[in-house]
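Anyone up for a design puzzle?
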C-alpha cells in the first residue's frame, strides 16, 4: 500500500492544506521559508501514523487535528487481505473506479484519543447499506429467539394455571367422595322407601358429578402433558436463546472495557509525552505497555464474543427454517461462519490500517546524507 496524497487540518499553524499529491517517483520535496509549516506537515503525517499528539500541537481555538491520507492498494492485495471475509457488494468496484485509492482520516477527540475513518461517502455507503441489511437480519433472528423465550414463559404460566385448576378439581372431587360416602352410609339406615329412593337419587347425582370431575382432571392432565412435551421440544431452542442473551450481555461488558482501555491508553500516552525525569518516563512507558496489552486482550475477547453471537445467530437462522438444533450445530462452526460473514466498516479500516507504510521522521538533515540513508531504499520501501 502506497501513500499518494494527504490533507492536514488544524495542526499547529496549519488550518487546511487541502489535498496535496505526492510525486509519482516516490521523492517529494517540501519547499518553503523558515517557519512556513514544512516540519509541521512531516510531524502531522507522523501523528497520523502513530495517533499521538501533544498539547503544543493544538491550535489556540482548541480545534482538534484532522489528518487524511490517500493510499493506493491493488485489487489483488485487497482480495488477499480479505480472503477469509466477505466484502460488501460492489465495494471492490467502487474502489477500482477511484483508481484503487482508499482515503483514511484520523480524527482526535476532546480527550486526545483518536480514531481512523473512511473518507469517501460512496465507499462508506456500501458499508452502511450492508450493515443495515445485517442489522435487519439480526433483529429478525433476535426477535425469533425472544419469541421462543416468550412462548416457553407462556407455556410455564399455562401449566401453573392448569395445576391450580387441577388442585381445585381434586378438592371438589374429595368433597364429592365424602358426600357420596355419607349418602352411602345413610341408605342403610333409611326408614322408609321414599327416603331410600331420595338417597339413591343423591348417590346417582353425586356419582355423575364425580365422573364429570374425573373427566375434567383427566383433560387437565392431558393438557399439562402436551404442554410439558412442547416445553421439552423447545428446550434446545431455549438454550440457544439464553446463550444469545448471555453473549449480548458479555459483548456490552467488553465494549465498555475496550472503551475504558482506550481512554487509559490515551492517558498513558500523555503521561509518557509529558514525563521529563528519566525514572518517571521509564515507569510511564511500563504503564503504557501494560495498558496496550490490556486493550489488546479486551479487543480479542470482544472479537471472540461477537463471533460467538454470530455463530448462535447462524444456528438460529437455520433452526427457524426447520433444521434441528443439534444437526445445525454440527453443520455450522466458527470457520464456516467466518467465510460467509461480511466485514464491517470498522474491521475494514482496521485491516487496511495494518497495511499503512511506516512513517519515519528524520530529525536532522545529516541523516539524509548519502552515507546515512540510501534514497533507492526509500523508493523501494514505499511500495
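Challenge accepted. My sequence:
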Amino acid at each position: 500500500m502506497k501513500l499518494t496524497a494527504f490533507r492536514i487540518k488544524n495542526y499547529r499553524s496549519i488550518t487546511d492544506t487541502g489535498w496535496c499529491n505526492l510525486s509519482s517517483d516516490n521523492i517529494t520535496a517540501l519547499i518553503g521559508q523558515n517557519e512556513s509549516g514544512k516540519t509541521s506537515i512531516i510531524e502531522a503525517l507522523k501523528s497520523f501514523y502513530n495517533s499521538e499528539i501533544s498539547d503544543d500541537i493544538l491550535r489556540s481555538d482548541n480545534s482538534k487535528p484532522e489528518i487524511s491520507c490517500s493510499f493506493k492498494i491493488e485489487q489483488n492485495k485487497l482480495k488477499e487481505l480479505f480472503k477469509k471475509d466477505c466484502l460488501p457488494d460492489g465495494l471492490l468496484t467502487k474502489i477500482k473506479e477511484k483508481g484503487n485509492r482508499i482515503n483514511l482520516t484520523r480524527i482526535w477527540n476532546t480527550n486526545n484519543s483518536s480514531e481512523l475513518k473512511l473518507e469517501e461517502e460512496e465507499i462508506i455507503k456500501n458499508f452502511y447499506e450492508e450493515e443495515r441489511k445485517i442489522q435487519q437480519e439480526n433483529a429478525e433472528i433476535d426477535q425469533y429467539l425472544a419469541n421462543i423465550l416468550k412462548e416457553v414463559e407462556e407455556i410455564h404460566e399455562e401449566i401453573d394455571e392448569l395445576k391450580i385448576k387441577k388442585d381445585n378439581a381434586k378438592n371438589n372431587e374429595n368433597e364429592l367422595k365424602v358426600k357420596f360416602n355419607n349418602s352411602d352410609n345413610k341408605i342403610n339406615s333409611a326408614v322408609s322407601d321414599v327416603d331410600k329412593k331420595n338417597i339413591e337419587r343423591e348417590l346417582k347425582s353425586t356419582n355423575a358429578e364425580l365422573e364429570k370431575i374425573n373427566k375434567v382432571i383427566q383433560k387437565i392432565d392431558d393438557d399439562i402433558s402436551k404442554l410439558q412435551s412442547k416445553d421439552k421440544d423447545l428446550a434446545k431452542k431455549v438454550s440457544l436463546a439464553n446463550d444469545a442473551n448471555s453473549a449480548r450481555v458479555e459483548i456490552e461488558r467488553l465494549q465498555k472495557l475496550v472503551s475504558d482501555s482506550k481512554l487509559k491508553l490515551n492517558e498513558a500516552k500523555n503521561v509518557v509525552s509529558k514525563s521529563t525525569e528519566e525514572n518517571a518516563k521509564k515507569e510511564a512507558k511500563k504503564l503504557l505497555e501494560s495498558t496496550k496489552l490490556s486493550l489488546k486482550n479486551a479487543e480479542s475477547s470482544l472479537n471472540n464474543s461477537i463471533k460467538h453471537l454470530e455463530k448462535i445467530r447462524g444456528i438460529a437462522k437455520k433452526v427457524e427454517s426447520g433444521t434441528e438444533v443439534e444437526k445445525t450445530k454440527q453443520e455450522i462452526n466458527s470457520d464456516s461462519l467466518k467465510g460467509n460473514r461480511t466485514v464491517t466498516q470498522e474491521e475494514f479500516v482496521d485491516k487496511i490500517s495494518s497495511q499503512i507504510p511506516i512513517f519515519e521522521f528524520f530529525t536532522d538533515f545529516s541523516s539524509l546524507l548519502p552515507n546515512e540513508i540510501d534514497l533507492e531504499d526509500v523508493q523501494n520501501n514505499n511500495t
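A detail worth pointing out: Residues 129-353 form one domain.
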